[in-house]
Amino acid sequence: MTILLSPNAMKGGLTANEIAQVMQRVIDRETPEIDTIVAPIADGGNGTLDCIMNALGGEYRMTVIHGPLVSLPIPAQWGIIEKTRTAVIEMAEAAGLHLLLPEQYNVMDATTYGVGELIGTALSSGCTSIVLGIGGSATNDGGAGCMEALGVKFLDKQGKHIHPGAAGLLSLDRIDTRSIDPRLRSVQFTVLTDVRNPLCGPDGASFVFAPQKGAAPEYLALLDAGLCHYASILQRDLGRDVANLPGAGAGGGIAAGLFAFCNATIVSGIDYVLDTIRFDALVQSSNAVFTAEGRLDAQTGGGKGIAGICRRAGTYNIPVHAFVGRINGDKELLQSQLGLASLSQISPGVLSTDAAIRHAKQLLDDSLTEFLSRFSTV
User: Fold this and answer.
1) CB 3.0 to 4.6 Å from 165: which of 109, 161, 302, 307, for a disulfide?
2) To the nearest 10°, the Cα dihedral for 120, 113, 243, 102?
3) Which of 202, 195, 198, 220 is nearest to 108 (CA)?
4) How many H helices and E strands in the chain?
5) Which of 241, 270, 299 is the last residue of a domain?
6) Does position 292 have pLDDT exceeding 70, yes or no?
7) Are 128 and 209 contained in the same domain?
């Protein structure tokens, strides 16, 4: 028997590579007769850079940029694949929520400026193609900060630059693109996302994702109004309609900004990664797939890693077994909707999230050990 190990990262706990290592170690210890194929995955969020670089080869680079709060310069890693002149960038490296302490969460002021600095660095390195994973952001600025770093001016009625972050969007009066980096015209942008949410409205960036970034309920309507106003200015000044574009709300709306200014193509992150690692060929050489995710809930089916794996593996009637940190919702219903052969929550419900993250390796080890003791009957 051969098992394909294709876990996603458990955000804040373990990387996809670390999870795969734990899985392989436990299988080797408990069921040495089982062969394994290791192919970690990502869906546009944490680990996307590593997945693509591992599959295609390339050089990691480090650039000091401005973080999600502009006053904080940070080192950010990105990758370059020389043979295709492709840059691989994770938005979270420059504007990620994980870069801030909980007491620093400030979705009003958080900016994507550093993402634009990374893009500019990639352009200066001769890249003509940029792949950008946009999961895990701390921002809600519609990509305005990113484009400001690339020469676009966002001005109020007095002709002054608006405040960085989401806070300034309602005061936006006009967009001046005369100083935009001319190299952007010859670059192909591919934006990888794990959601299909629009920019605005009850299913948009502000109402769905801003609470995860520290936004209080009373600010959600204001944040949404800012993005809606931003969309109207983009429509008027650039002729680009982003308000209801599927996926435009991803990354705090940076997908909308990159579509409007750079003609970016917004694609499913998990499908892009699975194609890159040649998942279909690997799964056809396997008898089962073991995958993992930090949290499984109603949003998982909208484009997260497990959903993509189940869809691909199901094409070849290969069962998928998932191990997740937390299940939010009806376990049986979620398992059925995704088409999982089994679903295991590795952390006891009484354990706090912080404790589960600290002990993630041991919890995964214990859960997988117990599962393998009955695997032949599952």
Assistant:
1) 109
2) 140
3) 220
4) 14, 13
5) 270
6) yes
7) yes
